[in-house]
Amino acid sequence: MDVICCPLDKATLELDADEADDEEVLAGTLTCTECGETYPIEDGIPNLLPPDMREEAAA
Amino acid sequence: MSGDGSGAGDGLAARRGADDAVVYQPAEDSGLLAEAAVAEAHGRVLEVGTGSGWVAERVAEERGLDVVGSDLNPHAARQARERGVEAVVADLLSPFRADAFDTVCFNPPYLPTDPDNEWDDWMEHALSGGESGRELIEPFLADVGRALAPDGVVLLLVSSLTGYDEVLGLVDEAGFAAEPVVEESFPFETLTVLALRRA
């Protein structure tokens, strides 16, 4: 998805794919090229909440 | 759509049942937003607060457009994905690039809620707009111009309970002009979908 960026500083995210099918990444990590913060991709869904909200929103 | 590949069948069914209980399901407001979005959407589309993903799915199917659905609630993102919508977990517009979308749709949590009566679960997040009813609308309008392409359109659902004139004031402050697309009255509220374009 080329529409997303780091929620903290809007910098580019670099994708590390752990698991993918023909169409998309199912599991992996997005890392901000500026601040180094990481965002998980689980079941094909990137979690792009800032770190402080991510913990609060843990389901 | 073929999102059922992972995990045992039983686990998936149980998870889906659990998701239903904590994800806002399509209602009258969703229907109105879908009607307006199908009529007005163009280009690349984002639905903020997509919930079950139903509105995003309507736009994708009836207009053949690329639609991304985002929600704070991971259960909602999962339901949207099961409908075939590209889903992300996000706080409003924060992880979207400048000029990324031609159309942004939002049916915000808008019920004015007494802080003493907030019940703090996913359904509250889906319904409550804080004391004013505009606690999510304000930051949304303040940031949507960044993520919206120059000739983009925002489709925002507004309830009379949230304060129509107050929302129009926020729209004006954000540099947009508003035009009602659809409107419907119900016993306790009037719902309007506004199309916002740069003034």
Largest sheet of chain A: 4 strands, antiparallel
* E-strand count of chain B: 7
Structural class of chain A: mainly beta
Would you state the CATH class of chain B?
Answer: Alpha Beta
| Estimated structural class of chain B | alpha/beta
> How much strand of chain A?
35-45%
Distance between the termini of chain B: 39 Å
Q: Globular, elongated, flat, extended or rod-shaped: what is the shape of chain A?
A: globular
- The overall pLDDT of chain A, averaged over residues, is 91
Most extensive chain interface and residues per partner: A-B, 21 and 28 residues
How many domains, in number, for the residues of chain B? 1
Low-confidence stretches of chain A: none
Number of helices of chain B: 7
Alpha carbon gyration radius of chain A: 11 Å
- Topology-level CATH name of chain B: Rossmann fold
Strands ordered across the widest β-sheet of chain B: 3-2-1-4-5-7-6
Overall 3D form of chain B: globular
